[in-house]
Write a structure and sequence with these properties.
This protein is α+β, with helices and mostly antiparallel strands and 141 residues long. The protein contains 3 helices and 4 strands; from the N terminus they run E-H-H-E-E-E-H. The chain has a 4-stranded antiparallel β-sheet with strand order 1-2-3-4, sandwiched between helices.
Length: 141
């Protein structure tokens, strides 16, 4: 059995950035549904992520093409280390729209976030999460 815990940060000043890690973060654009699916399955296996296990390739493609969904890839030494999936509400209607142009009143949820198992325990996750949170605050204006 697994459980889901939701946390909400309602003030950007609450963010306490973690110490810089040896990672680079880039936005996945255009969308790569196979990447989202792979990360979901590989990272989620250890965390009992199960709500998308039965998604078809078409469902992944449709979901990732949604302009409200943005994916980020974490890399270490050129190798994919993890991902983060953000969902804006409400959002712009143009795929690939500049996240900085969405304006005030946008809520951003970090829907999925994680590191591949071989990168866990290396001190990378704290900085990755704080950077993804910082990006979410930038989107919110």
């Amino acid at each position: 059995m697994s459980s889901v815990t939701y946390l909400q940060q309602t003030d950007a000043s609450w963010l306490r950035p973690a110490r810089r890690a040896d990672l680079t973060i880039s936005r996945v654009f255009p969308a790569e549904p196979a990447f989202n699916s792979q990360m979901y399955h590989e990272i989620g296996a250890d965390w009992q992520w199960n709500d998308r296990l039965d998604w078809s390739d078409g469902r992944w493609a449709s979901y990732c093409a949604d302009p409200c969904v943005t994916t980020f890839r974490a890399r270490r030494g050129g190798e994919t280390a993890g991902f983060a999936e953000l969902r804006m509400s409400p959002c712009g209607d143009e795929p690939g729209a500049d996240l900085d142009d969405l304006g005030d009143g946008v809520d951003v949820e970090i829907v999925y976030f994680g590191l591949l198992p071989r990168f866990a325990g290396l001190g990378l996750g704290g900085w990755f999460l704080s950077e993804v949170t910082r990006i979410a605050w930038q989107v919110q204006g």
